[in-house]
Structure formats: C-alpha cells, structure tokens
Amino acid sequence: MNSRLQGLGPTATQQVMIAAQALDAGRADEADRQLERVLTAYPNHPEVLRMKAGILSLRGQHHDAVRLMQHALVQRPQDALYHNTLGSLLGTAGDYEGAIRALRRTCELDPKLAMAWYNLGVMLTKSVRNEEATEALQRAVTLAPDHIGARALLADLLRTRGQVEAAAAEYRRLLSVRPTFGLAWWGLADLRTQRFDANDIAQMQAALKRSDANENDRIAIGFALAKAFDDEGSYAQSLQALATANATAQRYQAWDAKRFSAGVKSVADAFVPPPVGSPAPLGSEVIFIVSLPRSGSTLVEQILASHSQVEGAGELPDLPQVLAEETHRLGGKPIPQWAREATPADWQRLGQRYLERTARWRSERPVFTDKLPNNWIYLGAIRAMLPGARIVVVRRDPLETCFSCYRQPLDASSGYSRSFEALASFWHDFDQNVSRLATLHPGHVREHSYEAMVADPEPHIRQLLAFCGLPFEEACVNFHENQRTVRSPSATQVRQPMRKDTARSQRYGALLNPLRAALGLPAYSE
C-alpha cells in the first residue's frame, strides 16, 4: 500500500487510507468525502483514481468506474492489485469475459494472491464455467485455507451438483469459524431441505447485533432469518426481517424505476415494426427462456435439459454482452439508435457472434438453453439476430413472483427487488414488453404459464416440447431425476417432483396488501 501512495502528501495519504477503509465497508459517501480534496490536489494519481473508481462502482456508475480504473492501470501496468480491481469492476458492470481476462492477468503477475483466484472463481461461476471456477477457488483455498468466501462458493457449487448434505456441512463449518458469515447462513436457507431450529434463530439474531458483522452479512442473515420465521409460521416476523434486510440492501443497490421503464420502452420501440433481420436462418440451436426471477424458469430449463437433444446451459451472459460489444464498437451509441440503422448483414454478424460465444454448449448436444431472465428486454434483438431461435416466456402469478423476488437476496443488478413499488413497476414493464413482442412474433414466442403446468404437468410439457421442435421423451416428465448442475436459487427444488402447493402469498394474508396495491390487485379478504 505504501508504495502505491508514493507521491501523496501526509494529509492526502491519511485521507486515502481512511477512504479505502470506508470503501471496504461499502460506505461510498464517507469514502467520497475523504477523497474529494485529494482528488482535486492529485487528479491523476493512480491510487486516488483506483479509490474513486470503487466509489463510482458502488453507486452504480459502472462504465465510468471501469474507464477511470483503466486510466489508473496505464500508470501501473505490472501491478497485480490494479488488474484485480479492474477485473472486479468489469464483473460488477456485467462484462464477465473482460473480468476473467483481467483476473487471469492478475494471477499471472502474482500467482500467490488468493484474493485474485477467488475473484476469478466468482467470475467463472457467473459465466457458468463451473469446472474452471472450482479449480480457481481450490487454488484460493490452498493459498489461504481460512478464505471463507472461497469456501462458501465451493459449498454453493456442491449444492449445484445436488450434494446437499456436503454443502450444508461446509456451511456449518464456516459458521463455526465466523458466526456472522451471512453467505453461509443464506446458503443453509437456500438449500430448502432442512429447517432452522430455535438455536439457529437465536444465533442469527445474535449475529445481527455483533460489531464484526458487516452490512453484507446483515443483509444475508436477514433473508435467512426471514426464511426461518416463515418455516415456523411467524409471518409478521418474517416480513419484518425482509423489510429490514431489503432496506439495508437498498442503500447499496439504487434503482430508478422511471429511468428503467423508459429504457425498456426505448429498446422495445426500436424493434416496432420488426426490422429486416438476418437473412440466414440462424438460431435453431438455441431456446431462450426469459422471465422475471422466481417465476419457474429453472423448472422449465430442467424439463428441457432432461431431453436427449438439449443441453441446459443456465443463465448465460452472452446475449447482452454481444449487444454491448456492438454499442462499444459504434462509439457508445445506445441500442435504440443503432438498432434502427442496422442492416440484415449486421444482424447476421451479431447472431453469428452469439453462436460463436456459445459454441461450447453444443459440443455434446445439438440444442442448448439460454436462461438469463432479463433477456426479455431484448426479444426484438433476438428475433433480428437469430430468427430460428425459440423463445419461451415463463409467467407466474404476479403477486407470487414479486413476493418471491422480495424474499431472495438477488444480485446487485436487481435493485428493483428491494421495495414493493419498484417490484410492481418492474413486473408491469415485463408484462407490457413480452405481451407486445409475443403479438408481433406469433409462432416464435411462447408464453408459458407456471401455474398451468404445475396443475397438469404432462400436457403442458408436451406442448412445450412441440413448440421447441422436440419429440416427446418420458425423461422430461421425470425431470427431477436429472442430476445436471443447476446454478440458480431453485437448484434444490428442481430435483424434487413437481408440487402443487407452491403458492405462498395466501399464508401472509392481509400482510401483503401493500404489494397487492402496488400491483393494482384487490386487497386480501378472509
């Protein structure tokens, strides 16, 4: 650290160090106050720029953060920590491939930096490259056996493989070392195969009050505690725990609902009427599954991935990254502008780029699924790039969907899940957009009802397979027997037979009337 502060005066050095501590704790405003005067006096100092980049990232200004960090890295190109920071910022911005490149460079420069191996494991996991992720995380644990973040993520990977008991045992070991470790508490909650007992609840409540619990710990513990209260039928207490956890998370995950809605509409409008897309019938190899989170999309993917011709690839980042690459190539021109100017040859090039990026998912089976939920925003682009692709829109009851999102510690890109009003706005954006696109592209977009399938599985599974151009296979009805890796909050659920008693909102009764009101639904009555 001292060498990186070289060139700063004593006061500036102290302020940067305080800013770094505040940044590590997630306190962006405090870090910015400490850095303000330093930045004025030393506007090009690489360490000052690195701190400022971190602050911008916490505030959601991801592209500015990356740009500033790249400027700092020019001055310290052989500094492993700087490459590590750039990798983290790129990952937060959603550029997982860029993040992986930066973090691999970090590991080359300093192979003994456990933090870099851990961060690389995180980004590989987000890119659904689980075997490579496991290797990177094991390197991190070898270098730092007490790196509980790496151990927790390895436990998560055990869960994705269906090794529930082994995952639970690892989470418990982590909590014996650090009782405030929120990721382990939530990992246990997310297994959904066992209930917390009174002792667990007492431990979580105590952990929330401890000074060594950071804000991220408190958020994750809050969601786990809510799950524990829900399991025992204490619904008011569960809802209060959720409100506290979401309010804390909201401070770090700002969400501008009006701006998001305007952006979604702008993208959708750019594809009405539909442009003349790729002249080549690209995309017959892919089935896109889009939805809001917690709508049953993992179940649909598990059904399709149980077919002998289909590889379940999970939540792939490739489509939005191909579109982002085109925006970057065109000097930052936003999608709604360049989409109107794109030629059929452009759409074919983008479709081929997507298929190149996803080629590994067709190495064993001819068809694969892409289940990134928010791809519903880009339905028009999918149709232009990949006219041969099938698009399955999974719908679930809006109250159940929104409440389930509210109960889940979704990632930093899901700030809409922190309040009932933002959730309702997000759901309406989804509803309007997919309804409009399904009308424009009949025969290519299928709206799939989660409730209808749960009520009468086989006929709806047959219809789903027929839409996807797949012959019926009995394995698709017995999807729960498929032991494939599933990386989503529903990983444990899709290894169980389909259950019909999945509605949760009725248990909460009038407690959810504020969410009903936000969605425009009638209030609960006995």
Description:
This protein has helices at residues 10-24, 28-41, 46-58, 62-75, 80-92, 96-109, 114-126, 130-143, 148-160, 164-177, 182-191, 198-209, 215-231, 235-250, 257-269, 297-305, 318-329, 335-341, 344-357, 379-385, 398-406, 420-440, 450-455, 457-467, 474-477, 505-508, 513-519; strands at 286-290, 310-312, 367-370, 390-395, 445-449. It has 27 helices and 5 strands. The mean pLDDT is 91. Strands 2-3-1-4-5 form a 5-stranded parallel beta sheet, sandwiched between helices. 60% of the residues lie in helices and 4% in strands. The protein has 526 residues and is mainly alpha-helical. The chain is globular. It comes from Dyella kyungheensis. Keywords: TPR repeat.
How does the SSE layout of this entry go?
Elements (H helix, E strand, L loop, with lengths): L9 H15 L3 H14 L4 H13 L3 H14 L4 H13 L3 H14 L4 H13 L3 H14 L4 H13 L3 H14 L4 H10 L6 H12 L5 H17 L3 H16 L6 H13 L16 E5 L6 H9 L4 E3 L5 H12 L5 H7 L2 H14 L9 E4 L8 H7 L4 E6 L2 H9 L13 H21 L4 E5 H6 L1 H11 L6 H4 L27 H4 L4 H7 L7
Parallel strand pairs: 1-3, 1-4, 2-3, 4-5
Helix pairs in contact: 1-2, 1-3, 2-3, 3-4, 3-5, 4-5, 5-6, 5-7, 6-7, 7-8, 8-9, 9-10, 9-11, 10-11, 11-13, 12-13, 13-14, 15-22, 17-19, 19-20, 21-22, 22-27
